[in-house]
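Contributing new complexes? Match this layout with succinic acid.
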Amino acid sequence: MQVTPQRIVVLGTGGTIAGRAASARDNLGYKAGEVGVDALVQGVAAVDGFELATEQVAQLDSKDMDFGTWCALARRCAHWLAQADVAGIVVTHGTDTMEETAFFLHAVLAPVKPVVLTGAMRPATSAAADGPQNLADAVAVAASPLAQGVSVVFAGAVHSAIDVQKVHGYRLDAFSSGDAGPLAYVEEGKLRVLRAWPRGPALRNANALPDPADWPRVEIVLSHAGASGAVVHALVKDGVAGIVVAATGNGTVHHALEAALLAAQGQGVQVRRSSRCLLGRVLPQAGDRLPDADGLSPVKARIALQLELMP
Ligand code: SIN
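Output block (do not edit by hand):
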């Protein structure tokens, strides 16, 4: 007998959405990752025909996100996605590394069902908290037959895991998909879809990831005026497996840094060129000596290279 999907599972990981301050007027002096996910969903009206279930996977400030938490989260997502009565998943998360977690989940799950990350710029205790509306929107997206794969829902917009970036440190509308644009808007609980949800094969299986201690070390270096090869030399000496360079413009690299990266590449270190520009992507050219990062931002290129280099 066919089972009708009827549950949305909300996985809590912390962040400002779960933040607590001493006063309802304080939007800055709060501690992230304090309020449990059960309490966060209290104020969220259920979508017709769906029940909400919750699980606290972590409780942290996402600046401290780590590989162990990513593995645990990916495994819990895989578990819930495999349940026939689960229509989709919402992950409450800090905004600071949300784009990295979204890309990681996209890369190890490549789910058909929606996995929707959301958070807030103001703590749960704020008199003008944005978390409840973001969470309600995320639940609406997770319940929608129009949604699929991993996305970030924030301030009424739905962003793809591939394109989304945090672009503001304070404004409520803190995320952007750059020149790719959002996938959809959420308006009164309904999706207005603008473009197709990106799909793709998983780079790795969430249930077969190596122990976090064995993940290959991949670091990011920045090309800038007056750059040198010193950081690259130190990383190579320290046994780094891969380096992503956040290059200028269309992937150009300061000549001193470039020489060090080419030498590192010659010694077996995998190097990828991303751009430090917020919009656009590195356009590869014939004869490029350092491979480009396929349009990924530096932090996402780092994750992709780590997954590629895993044993
Ligand atoms: C965090 O990323 O956990 C804190 C900041 C935020 O959620 O906005």
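Reviewers usually confirm one structural detail per submission. For this one: The longest helix spans residues 67-81.
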